[in-house]
Amino acid sequence: MGPPPSNLIASLRSLYDDGQSQRLEGLSLDDSEDDLATIHQKQAKYEARLDQTIQELKEQVREQEEALERGLPLNQPPDKRARLDQLNAIESSFTSLTSEPPSIPPPDSPLAVLLALRHNHQLVTETSSSIKSVQAQLSGVQSRLQAEEFSLNDARLITQGLETRIEGLRASQTERASKTSSQVAKDLLRDLQRRKSNYEREAKRLVKAFNEFIDEHLAPMLAAEELGGPVVGGLVKVQDLTLQAGFSQQGKAKKLKTDVDVDKRQRRIDEIWGREVDNEGVDREGRSEKDIAGAEIRALTEQLLNASSSVARGSSGAYVALERDSAAARFLVRAKIAQFHPRDATKLRLIDFGKDLDVY
């Protein structure tokens, strides 16, 4: 057993001083003098036992240091007999130390309590750090588990869809095998007609929903952006009175005056949208900013669709020439619905959603 660390005595003294200071702080002014005298007597006895323990530890350290100095000289003699005598001395010293029972503090020594206190404090510290580490690992494992659960659900849905599709194909193949070629052709024709009617009905529904979205939401926001207001989405609800009043240079809505100058408003419309006849061939006289913006986005969308369907897929001929830099065109680009020509910002085309974006 090697000597104890050199700072053990200082640690014992520090723990003792902390305990005594906490005891003295807990005393109240109402304690009697007899109680104080009793406490001082106990304190003196405790200090005496502590000093005795420290002295015993010092004696043990000194004895072990002397034993090491006697058994391990710094300069090893070259003589083999001297070396053998040295090993015999070390063996006899080791035997004398191990044959004697270890020095154990007396039962009333505070050393055992102090060592237990230090050991418990070390255990609490290590346990706290372990808890923090385990919590961090648990959070990471839970995140990975959640991601794996999402992936598993997706895989199950894909598997279910594929199984349903395979069963449908097998049933269709079995049904076709039992029919003649003319019956199969008639069934295919009826299926195509049914799909066509479904597509036409769905297209009408989508066009109706598209027009309602423009009239109720998109057209006022486009008109506000054209008049110098916030971009589409910056002001969700735009009233007709706000469009009549206009916007300041900072993009804030102006206060509506009681008497609105109709001629000034019409001149402002003509300055922004240009001609007095819109793309649909209808005179713009007397139409509001909202109506003109809605007609413009409809016309631009129709031109893009017609250009995209009239040429080969991915061809550069699908671009539409723009008469001006309009809020409608900027909105379609921001919404990833259309894209400008890489070398000419006056040309616009729909994005082909069947492939990646063009990379130039």
Automatic annotation (TrEMBL):
Coiled coil spans: 43-70, 182-216
Compartments (UniProt record): Chromosome, Centromere; Nucleus
UniProt-listed InterPro entries: Centromere_CenpK
Record's keyword terms, sorted: Centromere, Chromosome, Coiled coil, Nucleus
Transmembrane segments: none
GO biological process, one term: mitotic sister chromatid segregation
Predominant place of localization: nucleus
Gene Ontology cellular-component terms listed: chromosome, centromeric region; nucleus
Family the entry assigns: Belongs to the CENP-K/MCM22 family.
PANTHER family in UniProt: CENTROMERE PROTEIN K
Protein name, as recorded: Uncharacterized protein
Organism phylogeny: Eukaryota, Fungi, Dikarya, Ascomycota, Pezizomycotina
